[in-house]
Amino acid sequence: MEATIRIRRFNPEKDKKPYWATYTLKDCEPTNRLLELLHRIKWEIDGTLTLRRSCAQGICGSDAMRINGRNRLACKVLLQEFGENPKIQVEPILGLPVIKDLVVDMEPFFAHYRAVMPYLVNETPPPIGPDGKPRERLQSIEARERFDDTTKCILCAACTTSCPSFWANGDYVGPAAIVQAHRFIFDDRDQLLQERLDVLADPDGVWRCRTIYNCTPACPRGIEVTRAIGEVKRAIQAGKRDY
Questions:
Q1: Which CATH number is 106-238 given?
Q2: d(Cα 184, Cα 58) in Å, to the nearest integer?
Q3: What is the DSSP letter of 241?
């Protein structure tokens, strides 16, 4: 197969504005991943191409980018999805400052993540086991299932940067931060419920979600993002996790 990759390039050290560069790769296999093709471009054609990636297994989330108009992980996209002799357009995810080429500044995204206090807080002493030593706080299967879906988030920012509300207002906490908050809001071992609900009840919190549903299909982990956001809204209205 022959693949044509059109990439939105930008080097702030020399470019006044972004531009499109087109590369043609021969001898491609249908099962090649897009990330492999980007590696070929960087290693064989143009070493100045800049992209972010780590595990290449769909776990780290670092290679999220906009592929033919959709937010996806380059390591999970197979060439065969685009037909014979495919033409693929690649650009950085939207709504975050571009550092260079396909690399964006993730700090605004992680600032929203930190704002929802994404960690378990429990000030009560841990239970004591039969041996007299502290043991883990056990949880029922049913209690765990309540938030199991949102534990899958890998912080790739694909959902947040697919959201028109986030594009319009970067102060919006965004779907990923709400998903992370959901994981702890509905954990019955956590004691920071009201504090998180207060953060998300802010004007730039959960109510900026317009239920457009862009976020759910953008998630590479299959998280039902829009459903999780709706559940957080209901928890805020009820003032408790068991509404």
A1: 1.10.1060.10
A2: 24
A3: S
Intra-chain end-to-end CA distance of the chain, in Å: 55
Beta-strand runs (E) in 94-200 = 98-100, 103-104
Give me the residue spans of the domains in the chain: 3-103, 106-238
Residue 138 contacts residue 122 (beta carbons within 8 Å): no
**Euclidean distance between CA atoms 68 and 89, whole angstroms:** 5
| Residues 182-199 pLDDT 10s | 999 999 999 999 999 999
Question: How many Å apart are CA 25 and CA 4, to the nearest integer?
Answer: 6
CA distance 145 to 151: 10
Orientation of helix 193-200 relative to helix 175-185, angle to 10° = 160
User: Sorting pLDDT into bands at 50, 70 and 90, what band is 242?
Assistant: confident
What backbone phi and psi angles, to 5 degrees, belong to 121?
-120, 120
Cα distance between residue 222 and residue 229, in whole Å = 15
**Residue 133 confidence (pLDDT):** 95
**Neighbouring-strand partners of residue 67:** 70, 90
The alpha-carbon radius of gyration of the chain (Å, integer) is: 21
8 Å CB contact between 94 and 66: yes
Torsion of the alpha carbons at 30, 36, 39 and 41, rounded to the nearest 10:
10
Q: Which CATH class is domain 3-103?
A: alpha beta
Contact criterion met (CB below 8 Å) for 176 and 153: yes
Spatial distance between the Cα atoms of 160 and 94, rounded to a whole number of angstroms: 9
Q: Which residue has the tokens 């600032």?
A: 111
DSSP β-bridge partners for residue 90: 7, 67
User: Rounded to two decimals, what is the model's pTM?
Assistant: 0.93
